[in-house]
Amino acid sequence: MKDKISAIVIMLSLLISVTGCGKKENKDVTAASCYELALAMAYTDENRDNLVVCNANNEEYEAMLNLMYGLTVPDDGCILYSMNEEPTEYAVLRARKYNDYINTREIEDAFKKYIEERIAAYTGYYPEGVDILQNSRIFIVGEYVVLDISQNPDAAKAAFDELYSMEDSAVKAQMDTYTDMELKLEENRKKVLYSEDSFVNSNIADNTSEQEKDTEDEDNQSEQVGNITSEDQLHDVDDSAYYNKDIVTAYLEKKPELLADDKDIAVLNRVTEIIDECITEDMTDIEKEKAIHDYMCEHMDYDRQGLGAAMTHMEDSDNPYGMLVNGYGICTGYASTFKLFMDCLGIECMVVEGMVYAYTDDHAWNKVKLGVTWYNVDVTWDDPVSDAMSEDDTTRSKWISDYTFFNCSDAVLEENDHLWNRTEYPESLESMNEQ
Prior knowledge:
CATH class of the largest domain: Alpha Beta
CATH architecture of the largest domain: Roll
Number of strands: 14
Helix content: 40-55%
Number of domains: 2
Low-confidence stretches: 8-26, 206-228, 388-396
Number of helices: 18
Shape: elongated
Strand content: 5-15%
């Protein structure tokens, strides 16, 4: 009898143990939704008030899934992404099940590629952002693939695990904690979705991705991106594509009446104002060049919108109007504006079209001729986005004087991941400070 009771106790103990494991450990599915799991992770983040929600039941979900990760699946998921230049992002996607196969690998690979693309976009522009991205985390739990780009991934993972293991009633109770955050996330969503220049709204309306729009709008430059594997495949773009050359003529001949376009006139006015402020007749070409370099770094800034999750840019950020009138631009904006100034000052200069970060991101900078020697100038990389803000303008980064890429050699650029077709540009064999 005693042996029978012992056997029953052992069997009950094993049954309880197995049942407990089924509820709490190695669960393929949780009582929490993808949305709730993402909220739990984001709640640990100090940047959560700047996040935008994109849930599976939102109209823009399919467009965003494709735009950001190149995915058409899964049906269930949630993305929380930053509405500013911070790379903070949380994505919880539930993989589709095909008989015994779950496509977690497809989603994981898409996340890995996405992180690489974001690192490429931030390299040289936002060092703090690169650090965050390099410490990002991808993990798989059951049917769920999770992307965590944050400053405290350990805290986010702990919050995910805790909610994942909860029963339905506990999940609902926990959600009460997130009410204020939910309201803010939805407020940000509407702000992004329904703004006039919303990249999300345009993708829904046109049923095309922002990358495809860029390809249509900038055929001559975007052909470089995609299958480039060697410098020989990179080609120079006619510098006249960046701005109206009549602006230079109008400046040199002091004939603004040569210009009819309002934007060209605005660019001419700003060029004239800045040269009058920074340049004196007794300056050498090097002093003039440095004065323009410093003015651009101090008074203009990289287009932070281009560092956001969807990597879109503000209008005219690729040309002098965006830089001189709006005060923001991307690398082509910096390079074309610098060339415009050099043209007006009679200093020979060209725009170099190349790539950075192992052929994954296109980039532009300048070559300038001083005397008989050509040098490289990358104003963009001398003026990276910083978390420190300018004292006289709280919307722009404070420039921490940096001349790493001012009048430098090809070797310096090569050491810093710049790639270009050497046959199409003059050599720069020495840096100014090496003479």
